[in-house]
Amino acid sequence: MATTIVLASGSPFRRKMLEDAGLVFEAEKPEIDERAVEAAVEGSGVTPEDLALILAEAKALDISQNRPGALVIGTDQTLSLGDEVLHKPRDMEEARRRLLALSGKAHQLNSAVVLMRDGDVIWSHVGVARLTMRDLEPGFVGRHLSRVGDKALSSVGAYQIEGEGIQLFEKIEGDHFTIVGMPLLPLLAKLRELGALDG
């Protein structure tokens, strides 16, 4: 019998990545309060990479406990500037401040993926990418945000690297899929190893 694969995410980007890779899967949006999960580990010395993994596990668990036998993929991504973890901007003014704060600096995207069955983690991985923004003039940031609009509010960095956001960068080190939100190659390799994918 074929393994049921469930993506524990409401992200259209992550869904498209798996569809483009030829996976047959279902998608369910987990109902977790990410800020509450973060608050529970605050001050415990958790790294931004660990936090991405904790959030990915929480999402997978939320779906896995209601899907017996299914292989559930949980994912999350954190953006860290040094030791500080940044969240999605609430409005365009915060997006503007975010881009100016990242201007001329390197930040890190930490993309975690977890495979869970019946509430047990059977595999996890964190992909890391380092991105260096070029020096951005405040006027350019304003014009950029007026062009991209509310899309800027859908990612922690206030940019979509797969779109016009690529113009903000001078250097990118890391895997494209990790940057977009899921370390796809290690995930596909593990699914093949588990017999959930042909290969």
TrEMBL record:
Site (Important for substrate specificity): 13, 77, 162
Top EC group: hydrolase
GO biological process, one term: nucleotide metabolic process
One function term, GO molecular function aspect: nucleoside triphosphate diphosphatase activity
Cofactor: a divalent metal cation
Keywords in alphabetical order: Cytoplasm, Hydrolase, Nucleotide metabolism
Reaction(s) this enzyme catalyzes, per UniProt: N(7)-methyl-GTP + H2O = N(7)-methyl-GMP + diphosphate + H(+)
SUPFAM superfamilies: ITPase-like
Active-site positions on this chain: 76 (proton acceptor)
GO cellular component entries: cytoplasm
E.C. code: 3.6.1.-
UniProt subcellular location: Cytoplasm
Keyword GTP-binding in record: no
HAMAP family: Maf
Function: Nucleoside triphosphate pyrophosphatase that hydrolyzes 7-methyl-GTP (m(7)GTP). May have a dual role in cell division arrest and in preventing the incorporation of modified nucleotides into cellular nucleic acids.
Record family assignment: Belongs to the Maf family. YceF subfamily.
Name listed for the protein in its UniProt record: 7-methyl-GTP pyrophosphatase
Organism: Neoaquamicrobium microcysteis
